Amino acid sequence: MKRLTIARMFLALAAGLTIGSSAAQQASGVSAVLPPPPVPIPAVSRWDLTIDGFTLAIFNDLVVISSVATIPAEPPPILETVTPNPHTCAISLRRQLTRNIELAAWHELVILGDVAAAKKSFSLTAYDPRGFAMVRYHVTDGYPTKLEVEGLKAGVAEVLYENVTFACEFVQRVSV
Predict the structure, then answer these.
(1) Which end of the chain has fewer surrounding CB within 10 Å, N or C?
(2) Which residue in 165, 153, 139, 150 sits closest to 51, CA to CA?
(3) Which structural domains are found in the chain, ordered by start?
(4) pTM metric for this prediction
(5) 128-171 pLDDT tens trace
(6) What is the largest CA-CA distance in the chain?
């Protein structure tokens, strides 16, 4: 064999190609084995909190969506009723302070001790700059546990921000 042919066979074997087939044929076989590359999510321009089809609040930033399951050390006995694992869910959002007081009124229900009336299921949807929904979460029995206003400095023209933290029974990502 010629020295050039041996070098080509070596390079083909090193690249994982089968000798005698074209690179295009083998590339098409490789794409069926490898998963497609992930599609990046474009920038989010806003988060809408919606209850029963009514937008209650629009947020600039999502700080965190957290759902933590606590796994029991021992499995429960078979004869007892099976209860779901206890878990903790929290959602924290941030927006510029507005004149809208609906979130503050909702938070007052919790402060006054009427948590049962304050629990509401809602959707949290992320929109891109063109207004298309990108990501949606369904929150079951959520209520605002913490309401903060930040950026208060006398004599300085700063933007005031409102941070809202929600506790919930369950948070689930759903399709848009």
Answers:
(1) N
(2) 139
(3) 3-33 (no CATH), 46-174 (2.30.110.20)
(4) 0.69
(5) 999 999 999 999 999 999 999 987 777 777 788 999 999 999 99
(6) 90
